[in-house]
Design a protein that fits this description.
The complex is a heterodimer of chains A (429) and B (271). Chain A has three domains: 153 residues, Beta Polymerase, domain 2 (2-Layer Sandwich), CATH 3.30.460.30; 144 residues, 3-Layer(aba) Sandwich (Rossmann fold); 82 residues, no CATH class. Chain A contains 16 helices and ten strands. Chain A is elongated. Chain B has two domains: 112 residues, Up-down Bundle (Four Helix Bundle (Hemerythrin (Met), subunit A)), CATH 1.20.120; 152 residues, no CATH class. In chain B, helix 1 packs antiparallel against helix 2. The chains are: A alpha/beta (429), B mainly alpha (271). At the A-B interface, helix 8 and helix 13 of A face helix 5 and helix 6 of B.
Chain lengths: 429, 271
């Protein structure tokens, strides 16, 4: 058995190509069915805006890849040229090494971003729901989640934020601590404000005020995303109330100067004020930063920080690579072990097949059961099976002469025949 | 007996210190918890050793350098535990704990044996005066550390270059709010300490105020903190400026405690 990955990502294909080989949520099950019809037993599909990758476990890699290309071309109307020119195929060690890298965020466009792990988890969940994965891929994906978790906790790869909005929020946490009691004023209703608003909304700030020269746009933005619109004239009143200000207007001249902020700070009794100016030309006079308890960051400051954070992440990625290398070695030796001793895999597979079958029967009967109950039952059966087959596996490892093998084989085959027999009798009654 | 209790307290403080330093590097929650429980254990063992010493000696054990340093460390540990229960300030442990350990190891450099109390100190005012003064000073010591941290972190955020401290330690607002709390607890303790001291002096030496170096410096300290309170409440000072005044106040305490005892001498030089 061989683990193989086939796909494309942001390094090998531009966005217009990636868009074409994007499998939507409804297409993925269809794809799994097509693979199953062609006798590819284990597969998983990871499709995001930056990559589409198909993971396989197969006996004949070349044949399976040909089958996949054929399916993609015929059933999903994907140009053969795309499948040949923009894709990569990785086999064995380099394939699972690649999956470890992807899940840890090391293969992402922004190194260290955390979203990808969730996407890998979703991809795996979809695959298991469609019964597309089997023993080896299950093992591989669980291992992958462990590796990604290790990388996150043992390196500082995702520690410092790199996007403008997330950096602004991180900085304000360093000034104010928790943000859920805090208020923010957004000045301007352009695209930058929109992105920032989405992020701020997610952070759960207490109140978000929006002002704009054209009141209608502020109102629309508030309705579309979040916030309370105010007329532009109320700016100095709002400046007294809020903790954080985010400006991104198209104004030619600064809207906020030192005089205004000095006045505001007096009325605020020197409560700290954090200003983030992402407009070009700037909306806030840079000398405002000199005022006591006022912190002003403009777009260049944030860009410098972002650069610094990115280079920190690159430094950290070396540590992450070490972790991944050692995990790849571990996984390789596990694979070798299971190949050297196919009987172990045989036993585990048999047991897993019985388990899955019985679990599905029960799940079908329990129509009212919710997701959690089903998951608990799933876990329970897994645990029982694991405990039951452990002595067999241990015995095989300990003493692999022919006699033991025969006994073990007979034990497990017999069980299956027994099962058929029993099932028949059940139906007969 | 007493000595072994004291040593086990030091052991726990050291364990806590090491855990907090490891927490600073690794950021692991379990390491922080270890440090926390070691600190709680250390505090109570230390408290027991002080109570034992009180029972053995028959008087409040704050009468020589060993006892003073030990009791000062105990007050700091207690106040820090109180702050920890109020704010989320786990990371401050790696600043406060090393100082507690240093104070206790420093205490070991002085003779720890119990001596009969000098006649002039035999008074009910001894516990009242010393406990209030030490509590006040311990609170101001914590606020001194917090203020230094505030100034470094604030400078980092203003200058936008490096974020070594501001990224790891509590937010500016949290630090400022701890400072405010220290001010509002420390000042009453300090005031009561000075007044009870003065009354005691009236009984013991026949004069309420004799301008010896210790009295003078504690008055200066009191004035610095009074200015701080005035500026904070009446003028609305916050953040950096109050942090600087807190530091000035503590330097003045250092003069009162260390400078006068070790360098100048005077009526208070029992320790």
């Amino acid at each position: 058995m061989q683990i193989v990955v086939f796909g494309l990502n942001h390094n090998t294909a531009p966005v217009e190509i990636r868009e074409k080989l994007f499998l939507t949520e409804s297409q993925v099950p269809q794809f799994f069915n097509a693979l199953r019809d062609r006798d590819i037993e284990e597969s998983a599909v990871l499709s995001t805006c930056n990559r589409t990758e198909i993971y396989l476990c197969t006996n004949d890699a070349d044949e399976s890849l040909a089958v996949i290309k054929e399916i993609l071309e015929n059933s999903f109307n994907i140009d053969r040229r795309i499948l040949e020119e923009y894709t990569y195929t990785l086999k064995d060690e380099s394939s699972y090494r690649h999956l470890f890298l992807v899940a840890s965020g090391l293969d992402s466009m922004v190194v260290g971003e955390a979203q990808i792990l969730g996407q890998v988890k979703d991809a795996y969940r979809t695959a298991t729901h469609n019964n597309a994965t089997g023993y080896l891929l299950n093992k591989l994906f669980h291992k992958t989640f462990n590796v990604a978790k290790r990388v996150r906790s043992e390196t500082r790869i995702g520690y410092n934020p790199v996007s403008i909005s997330s950096m602004a929020v991180e900085l304000s946490k360093r000034i104010f601590g928790e943000l859920h009691q805090r208020k923010v004023l957004v000045i301007g209703a352009g695209e930058m404000s929109e992105t920032a608003l989405r992020y701020l909304k997610k952070e759960g700030l207490h109140e978000i005020f929006i002002i704009n020269r054209t009141f209608g746009n502020a109102k629309k933005l508030a309705e579309d995303i979040a916030g309370i619109p105010y007329p532009f004239e109320s700016m100095s009143d709002l400046l007294m109330q809020v903790d954080m200000v985010l400006t991104s207007t198209g104004s030619e001249k600064p809207l906020i100067d030192t005089g205004l902020i000095v006045q505001v700070m007096k009325k605020r009794k020197n409560r700290p004020l954090f200003l983030v100016d992402i407009a070009v030309p700037r909306d806030v006079d840079p000398t405002v930063n000199k005022i006591e308890n006022v912190y002003l960051y403009d777009i260049d400051d944030l860009k410098d920080l972002s650069q610094k954070h990115l280079s920190d992440r690159l430094k950290e990625s070396e540590k992450a690579l070490e972790i991944i290398d050692s995990e790849v070695k571990k996984f390789s030796s596990w694979l070798r072990q299971s190949e050297k001793n196919p009987l172990i895999t045989f036993v585990i597979d048999k047991a897993e097949a019985i388990r899955t079958k019985e679990f599905k029967k029960t799940a079908q009967k329990l129509k009212n059961a919710d997701e959690e109950t089903l998951r608990s039952i799933d876990m329970l059966t897994r645990a029982i099976v694991k405990k039951l087959i452990h002595p067999h596996v241990a015995l095989i490892k300990e003493d692999s002469d022919r006699e033991t093998s025969e006994i073990i084989k007979r034990l497990f085959t017999l069980e299956e025949e027994d099962e058929k027999d029993l099932d028949n009798r059940d139906e007969g009654q | 007996m007493n000595v072994s209790i004291f040593y086990s307290a030091i052991f726990c403080y050291l364990l806590s210190t090491l855990s907090y330093l490891a927490y600073l590097v690794s950021g692991k929650k379990t390491v922080e918890r270890t440090g926390h429980y070691a600190l709680v254990a250390a505090f109570f063992i230390h408290l027991v050793s002080v109570v034992f010493r009180y029972l053995q000696a028959g008087h409040t054990p704050i009468t020589n350098m060993f006892e003073a340093l030990s009791f000062f460390a105990l007050c700091i540990a207690g106040f820090f535990l109180y702050l920890k229960a109020t704010y989320r300030i786990n990371s401050l442990g790696c600043i406060v704990l090393p100082f507690i350990s240093i104070l206790l190891i420093w205490a070991l450099a002085y003779p720890a044996d119990i001596k009969p109390l000098a006649p002039v100190l035999r008074s009910y005012w001894l516990p009242v005066h010393t406990i209030f003064s030490f509590l006040g000073n311990a609170i101001f010591f914590v606020s001194f550390l917090v203020s230094v941290l505030y100034i470094i972190a604030e400078r980092e955020i203003k200058r936008k270059k490096t974020f070594l401290f501001s990224a790891r330690f509590p937010s500016l607002e949290t630090l400022d709010s701890i400072n405010y709390r220290c001010m509002s607890y420390g000042f009453p303790f300090l005031t009561v300490g000075i007044i009870t001291g003065s009354i005691w002096a009236g009984f013991a030496w026949g004069s309420y105020w004799s301008w010896d170096p210790k009295e003078t410096w504690s008055l200066i300290t009191w004035i610095v903190y009074a200015i701080l309170i005035h500026n904070r409440l009446a003028i609305g000072w916050r953040g950096r400026k109050t942090a600087y005044l807190m530091i000035a106040g503590f330097i003045s305490i250092l003069f009162t405690f260390v400078g006068v005892n070790l360098l100048i001498g005077g009526l208070h030089s029992y320790m």
